[in-house]
Amino acid sequence: MTSPQSASIIMTHFPANSFYRFLCLLGLFAFIASAPALAQVGRPGGPPVNSGAGGPAEKVELLPPGADSLVVLNEPGQIIRKLYNNVKFRHKGVLMYCDRAIQNVTSNVLEAYGNVRIVQGDTITVRSDTMYYYGNSRLANLRGRVTMKDRKMTLTTGQLDYDMAMGVAHYPNKGRIVDRENILTSQEGFYDTRTKQFTFRQNVRLVNPQYVLTADNLLYNSLTKIADFQGPTKIVNKDGTLVATQGQYNTVTRVSNFQQRATVETPKYTITGDSLFYDNTTDLGIAKGNVIMVAKEDKTIITGNHSRYNGKLGISRVTGNAVVRNVVSERDTLFMRADTLFSYDTPRKNPADTAKVVTTPGKKPVRKLVGNRNVVVYKSDLQSRCDSLVYDVADSTIYFFKKPIVWSQQYQLEADSMTAKMKHNHIDRMFLKTRSFVIARDTIQNFNQIKGRQITAFFKTRIDTVWASSSTIPKNSSGAKNPQVRPTTAPVVSTTAPFTRRENTVLDRVIVEGNGQSIYFAVDDKNKLVGMNRVESSRMNIDFEDSKVGQIRFYGQPDAQFVPPQEITGPKKELDGFRWRTEDKPTKDAVLNYKPLVKKSEKTTASVKPSPVGAVLNGKK
């Protein structure tokens, strides 16, 4: 018999299905037990071979028939086997198959090559070209064409480290995961086989029949179908695009919930907020913190602290320092703020079914902007304060409610309610209802006043030519700039240096119906005051020329009084209720940085009254 010290290799070939094979195997095991330890076998840089805790680890078991052939290497202190063809092992209930294997019985390390397969119960199967398995730590390093399957998904990669003790698989190189609904690729990933939780890193891409998701880092649970994002993320589907940094997305219900700055873009709107909830199925979005909503069709921007968007109903609501910017022309923008702002898209309804909406090809839906409570408006030729307001964008009509006040350059208009019709982005006419009051300041700073039950005011746009800038204002003979020539702040139309042509909206004609009263100041050709006329009449028409009262027509037995200049005193030159409220006239900065007007004498009372806004939204203008 050959001594263990002199023998280096013993080869055994097993005839198939023979009793001789069984006897040889018994002799081989007896030899191994008496042989000195052989050299350690394992992957360089692998885990410690004796990392088992709580006593000696369970050895990897070679299952019969074991292999077609076996070679035993005799190395000091090590027991090493080389097995060829139909190799089968078992460890901790896990079956392992391969074409060729090197087993270090001493260190409990296994190298497997060719058609490597791991079968873990009836749930997980792993295949690869090569495997290094460390039995003490139950870690398998798989290389080559690696696939990992469970009942719900298939993972394909070139390198996989599978910790069977923890149930966690890790691929450090690009991997691809496929389930019934999704195809997901990433540069690196982890898979917890127990919780079905995936962790993906770098160049994450999730493709679904309904959407495509890209992210830097992604956590995905194949049971709950919920994706958690860490880093820049983008979701694109047929209904729009969502861009976010951190949050969750349910791939089944298509509900998103993001905690950091996020943006959702639909065919009609773009919504951005510090936090964002969006349901793709119901087209419902809720944004909080520094909210920005952009209506694409008419270049409308709404900002605030809280926004709720219902795409199916076409309704948006913004609260908390809510401001709307509507671009009416290349040179002018309408700014409006309110405690609550609404945006309504109101397509034409089918009369036979009020629940359905009929869309006309090529026809845009009617958009209405609604401001409720503490409304402030600024436009280059119109400023206003009121309790509530409706702006019909399609008809260029603004409805003012609950004792509004409107300013247009040197004009002030008040009534219980008002309607402003716009034409070519400028005021064309205004309708004042109940307790109507119009004040027009003339060139010598007198206030022409008109009162009545109902007033219709017509405006026109006048082109004025002024000096282009203060640097081009001509100087007088003493070298000083001419103080009588002042540049205006109206929109610029065109420039031919040193002159600038600007548009100004001026009052053209006023029609008063019911309980008409007026005070107007007469001036001569040299713009010198001649006297004051005070007239009462049931109906009157007043024409204006260059901010001066021109032709006047009174109907229904008018009562007129002329007051010469020397007799014009305070009470006589004002109608009852006269208030020139130029200090309340808002600027653009006042709209963007709103502070409510509070009067010491005002007391707040709780009352509920029907809102006139609903009538306008329902078409009852």
Q: Could you characterize the architecture of this molecule?
A:
With 621 residues, the protein is mainly beta. The protein has three helices and 40 strands. The protein has a 38-stranded antiparallel β-sheet that branches. It has a two-stranded antiparallel sheet with strand order 26-27. A hairpin with a 2-residue loop joins strand 16 and strand 17. The N and C termini lie far apart (115 Å).
In brief:
The protein is mainly β. It has three helices and 40 strands.
Number of helix segments?
3
Overall geometry comes to rod-shaped
Average per-residue pLDDT, rounded, comes to 79
The termini sit apart by 115 Å
How many strands? 40
Q: Helicity level, as a percent range?
A: under 10%
Biggest sheet details: 38 strands, antiparallel
| Structural class determined from secondary elements | mainly beta
Q: What percent strand?
A: over 45%
State Rg: 43 Å
Which SSEs are present, and which pair or pack?
Elements: E1 9-13, H1 19-34, E2 61-62, E3 69-75, E4 78-91, E5 94-104, E6 109-120, E7 124-134, E8 139-149, E9 154-163, E10 168-171, E11 175-178, E12 183-186, E13 188-192, E14 197-208, E15 211-221, E16 226-237, E17 240-250, E18 255-258, E19 262-265, E20 269-273, E21 275-279, E22 284-295, E23 300-310, E24 315-327, E25 333-346, E26 349-350, E27 353-357, E28 366-379, E29 382-392, E30 397-401, E31 405-408, E32 411-414, E33 417-423, E34 426-441, E35 447-467, E36 492-496, E37 499-523, E38 529-545, E39 548-555, E40 559-563, H2 588-592, H3 613-617
Antiparallel strand pairs: 1-3, 2-4, 3-4, 4-5, 5-6, 6-7, 7-8, 8-9, 9-10, 9-11, 10-13, 11-12, 12-14, 13-14, 14-15, 15-16, 16-17, 17-18, 17-19, 18-21, 19-20, 20-22, 21-22, 22-23, 23-24, 24-25, 25-28, 26-27, 28-29, 29-30, 29-31, 30-33, 31-32, 32-34, 33-34, 34-35, 35-37, 36-37, 37-38, 38-39, ...
